[in-house]
Design brief:
Helix content: 25-40%
Strand order of the largest sheet: 1-2-4-3-5-6-9-10
Structural class: alpha/beta
Number of strands: 10
Strand content: 15-25%
CATH class of one domain: Alpha Beta
Largest sheet: 8 strands, mixed
Length: 303
Amino acid sequence: MTRTSAGARTRDADPVTGTWRGCDGNVLAWEAFDGPGPLSVVFLHGGGQSRHSWRRAARALQARGFPCLAFDLRGHADSDWIADGDYRLSRFQADLDLVLDNWARPAVVVGASLGGIVALLSTGHGSPWVRGLVMVDTAPKLNAAEIERIIGFLGHGADAGFASPAAAAAHVQAFFTDSAVTTESIAKGLRPTGDGRWQWHWDVRVVSGERNSVAVAHEAELRECARRVRQPFLLVRAGASELVTEDAVDDLKSCAPQLEVVWLPGAHHMITGDDNLPFVDAAAPFLTRLRDGMSPSSSGTAP
């Protein structure tokens, strides 16, 4: 496997880590759960999350024979925040295309929320490495009211920050009323600002800047990308989320008739922020079928 930067392993149980460059020369931090399997899985997290959101799923799939890669999207966690605030979906897609080129393995691309939209764009625009697509609780046609609610949640406190990790945890708890939120878990997603306050570990301009990634305005483009998808295609719906409606599922099926749908009862939109092992159980039959059905030529290098 070719990499454009050196990876580092701290102990055998840890993933290999490193950085690659995105389409604007921006640093993209990644971690790989490697192995010899012919079909890999590349994970993209949602807005406001990080590559660590997928870690349990990556470990579980690695144990089932799938090499896995996860990376921080631009503007998130250990990847560069973009100086001029360019967080258009096309730039996320261009970053992903370069990540797939550097990973250089046939892959099923799995994306949650924002990551799912980016995965759809890359697949629809013909990345030669993609052998399958999994979108997690997102679609071209989304519930606009729910998008507004999520953006309001993500943007709250992003500029001024929070007085403490406990204050940030209280904000998250108010949004996820039926989940137990701890200060310790929320603190992992915060960084000190230097003036006694705490800020999220992602750039708020991803959703609120002049060149942001909010997908609702891109519905026509995303539906056209879905029409171009010829690979096996799975949609994982979160049972406790109102973002992807039945109408949205029917719309996506009209664009991509091969679409398969699985339902995760009780899961929230930010599935990867909860326990994502149910996702592994739901997606494993799809992934295994793709891997077992690969011909020797399809498991080699991209054309």
